[in-house]
Amino acid sequence: MTYQVLARKWRPQVFEDVIGQEHVARTLKNAIKTGRLAHAYLFSGPRGVGKTSVARIFAKAINCQQGEPGVPCNQCLSCVEITEGSSVDVQEIDGASNRGIDDIRDLRENIKYMPSSSKYRIYVIDEVHMLTLPAFNALLKTLEEPPAHVKFILATTEAHKVPVTILSRCQRYDFKRIPAKDIVAHLSRMAADEGVDIPLSGLGIIAREAEGSMRDAQSLMDQVISFSGRTVRDKDIADVLGIIDRDVVFASSRAIIEGAPERCLQIVDQIYNYGYDIKEFYRVLMEQFRNLLICLIAPQNDLIAVSDTDKEEIRRQAEMAGTEKLHLLLSFLINREEDLRFTSHPRLVLETTMVKLCTLGDVLSLEELLKRVTALEKRLTGAAAGLGDCAGPEPLKDPGAGWPSEGTGDHSGEGSRSPKEGKGKGWEEFLAFVAGKSQVAHSILKEWRFVGLSGDVLEIEGKGESFSSRYFEDPGRYRQLRDYCREFFGRDMDVRLHTHGQAMPGRSRKTPAQAAARVRGGEGKKAIPKTAREVLNLFDGHMIENDPGPKITDDIGGTIDERNA
Ligand SMILES: Nc1ncnc2c1ncn2[C@@H]1O[C@H](COP(=O)(O)OP(=O)(O)OP(=O)(O)O)[C@@H](O)[C@H]1O
Ligand SMILES: [Mg+2]
Ligand SMILES: [Zn+2]
Which residues, chain by chain, have CB under 5 Å from ion ligand 2? Predict the structure, then answer.
């Protein structure tokens, strides 16, 4: 058997086989069923979406001698001849090569004859927009009142080039681009039938390239199968079609979101060496950020034509970045696109753009800024008014609660004391022990709350975003803390640090009343200058060492006082 390309082999033969044009198929089928046939139809739409196929199915259905109304049997002589293109009653005329007035005159002569063996003579004029103006004019009259045994089906990819006088004499049907997911599903059926193994992600690449045209998708698949045989990998598809590897695209968006300029430069180098078209890469990168954004804005919609695994990664990256940042990145890419279009140094433009994108994300979102400003305002006004109306966070509990009496090495001493006594005391003993080692570490640790001790794990909790709760983030200080523990407990300890109330950025741990009390009373440390106290309150800090140093002028304090007054 001679080889047939997929597009021909898989031409739909009944209305139900036509994908993505249900609105057209249903109307035509009903028209036949109810006997309400027009004498001229115009099928318009992009290339390879089923116009010719539907025209043939329609012609077959009208002339079929056996099937039920609207369903061609595909077996009777008429159906078979139409499928083979050998029917004398159904003629396909290529508008591009029969575009002159003489061709239309011939056609007019021709339609006078009665059909040889069917009900109707049907003329399908493809690419009808190619006809010359005189040819169109010659067609007008015929189109308006053809003989009862004649039907016209005009097809075009460019309906806007067809004169309105023609358009108004036809019943018009607009064919749509076929959704990528429908193309993928169809290709996947075809692959299974052909015994070819192609991953869904690969079919997704093909569907994307086909831009809604089933014929294009089938041709691309033909090409890919010729290249790789029965087993096709994504990489083959990318190579054959000159498409940018998805991995590279994902690596790029990830590097940008994570703010890694060196990685971006490496990727550009890779793209360049691989011979990818840089402008094409840029387009794909924009599409990637569009997908990331859509994934957050409209997660339920089928607006992203990618495989499920890709979707998963898209979701991960999108969540990492957040809507605000993605908006920013995508807008920047769109604005910069023109630079790339007109440059003679595309690589350079791509490099600078990607590096810039890496830093763009660091800009705080407006929402975040507003939150912080509001929080700051609250703190300032709260401190000034001394009002305690805000519900503050829970006060720190007994720092020693939960401290077990056993297993605290040499320092626990009284093994027989009640758990309650032991709880408070154990933590306090540890604090006292640390005080003996370092005043600084002690004053920091005093701000922490004991959470639990089990086996070799000590858990403590700091207060929100305060300085003391971040103190042990420094590896050196953390090591020192563990050293103290080792000495105190007589064994290696795992110290787990928790922070409290971090969920709300900029939220103060203190009620305004507490803050005001601190401002007024200066936490009882009279030696701290007023300005310094203001600063401490504002930033939620506290004094580690009170170095008198050069005297701080009261300028800042004065300003704060004025505002608070
Ligand atoms: N809607 C569809 N459903 C299933 N297969 C389709 C569809 N559209 C196109 N195809 C496939 O593509 C091939 C070409 O389709 P068809 O000739 O009908 O497209 P067309 O719209 O007439 O394109 P053109 O404008 O380029 O003439 C068909 O043989 C079929 O395999
Ligand atoms: Mg066609
Ligand atoms: Zn038939």
Answer: 51-52
CATH number given to 246-360: 1.20.272.10
Ligand 1 pocket mutation, candidates 18, 24, 49, 127, criterion most atoms within 8 A of CB: 49
Q: Which ligand is nearest to the CA of 87?
A: 3
Which CATH architecture is the domain 180-241 placed in? Orthogonal Bundle (1.10)
CATH number of 6-174: 3.40.50.300
Q: What is the DSSP string of 521-552?
A: HGGG-TTS-HHHHHHHHHTT---S-----SPP
Whole-number Å distance between alpha carbons of 412 and 485: 13
Ligand 1: nearest atom to the Cα of 6? 31
Q: Is the dihedral of CA 508, 509, 511, 516 positive or negative?
A: negative
Which CATH fold topology does 409-500 show?
GMP Synthetase; Chain A, domain 3 (3.30.300)
142-182 tens-digit pLDDT: 999 999 999 999 999 999 999 999 999 999 999 999 999 99
pLDDT in tens, 285-322: 999 999 999 999 987 776 776 667 788 899 999 999 99
Q: How far does residue 126's CA lie from ligand 2's centre (Å)?
A: 6
Report pLDDT digits (tens) over 421-468: 445 568 888 888 888 888 778 888 888 888 888 888 888 988 777 777
- From-to residues of CATH 3.30.300.180 in the chain: 409-500
In this structure, what DSSP letter does residue 197 have? B
Return the SS3 of 113. coil
Q: Which of 214, 219, 221 to mutate to test the pocket of ligand 1 (most atoms within 8 A of CB)?
A: 214
165 contacts: CB under 8 Å, gap ≥ 6: 136, 140
